[in-house]
């Protein structure tokens, strides 16, 4: 999701100033108070008069977000699916390289996306740096590199460097699962 906003927040009756971040799995507040609200701990969400109220295990946090409050409430209550994050729709075509999560392939099929051998969008499973060598011949395609989180054999820095070395431009990172992240690369824009 990656939304962020400077705001005031009231937590258990005490006012605080700082920045609120709406992440995929949590809401984070950084300021004179640091607070993390895991999505799994949220019991109730509402938006009224520019204020987002989030009740969770430790109490209630009220964020003064103005016009953004209803949008944040909707995103918390209805998070985007993986298919949505990747931008797939009915009729979208993709090809794959490596072992892509079977559940994700099923989600794509259910959404109407079609696997095609030479599609313009490629899903690349990269469990180590060696797999990143496959990026170079894909320089004219949109590529989602799906790689494990938190292991030394492949890092986000490795993925970024390999994509850029292949002549691609990184434009988006998305949480794929508890264990994997996805990074989107596209060909550079042609200069007029």
Strand fraction: 35-45%
The end-to-end span amounts to 32 Å
Order of helices and strands: EEEEEEEHHEHEEEHEE
Overall domain count = 2
Task: Please describe what this structure looks like.
This protein is α+β, with helices and mostly antiparallel strands and about 190 residues long. It has helices at about 70-75, 80-85, 100-110, 155-165; strands at about 5-10, 15-20, 25-30, 35-40, 40-50, 50-55, 60-65, 95, 115, 120-125, 140-150, 170-175, 180-185. The chain is elongated, with a radius of gyration of 19 Å.
Core attributes:
six-stranded mixed sheet, 192 residues, 2 domains, PH-domain like, 4 helices, seven-stranded antiparallel sheet, Rossmann fold, alpha+beta
Could you write a compact summary of the structure shown?
It contains 4 helices and 13 strands.
Provide the fold topology.
Blueprint (H helix, E strand, L loop, with lengths): L2 E9 L2 E9 L3 E6 L3 E4 L3 E7 L2 E6 L2 E6 L4 H9 L4 H5 L6 E5 L4 H9 L3 E2 L5 E5 L16 E7 L7 H10 L3 E7 L4 E7 L6
């Amino acid at each position: 999701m990656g939304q962020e906003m400077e705001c005031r927040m009231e937590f258990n009756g005490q006012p605080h100033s700082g920045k609120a971040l709406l992440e995929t799995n949590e809401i984070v507040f950084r300021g004179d108070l640091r607070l993390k609200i895991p999505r799994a701990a949220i019991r109730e969400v509402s938006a009224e008069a520019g204020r987002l109220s989030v009740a969770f295990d430790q109490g209630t946090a009220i964020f003064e977000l103005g016009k953004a409050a209803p949008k944040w409430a909707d995103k918390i209550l209805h998070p985007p699916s993986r298919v949505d994050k990747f931008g797939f729709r009915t009729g979208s075509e993709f090809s794959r390289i490596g072992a892509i999560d079977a559940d994700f392939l099923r989600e794509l099929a259910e959404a109407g996306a079609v696997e095609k051998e030479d599609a313009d969008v490629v899903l690349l499973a990269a469990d180590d740096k060696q797999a990143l060598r496959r990026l170079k011949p894909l320089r004219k395609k949109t590529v989602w590199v799906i790689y494990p989180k938190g292991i030394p054999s492949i890092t986000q820095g490795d993925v970024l460097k390999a994509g850029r070395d292949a002549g691609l431009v990184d434009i988006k990172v998305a949480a794929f699962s508890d264990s994997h992240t996805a990074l989107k690369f596209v060909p550079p824009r042609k200069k007029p």
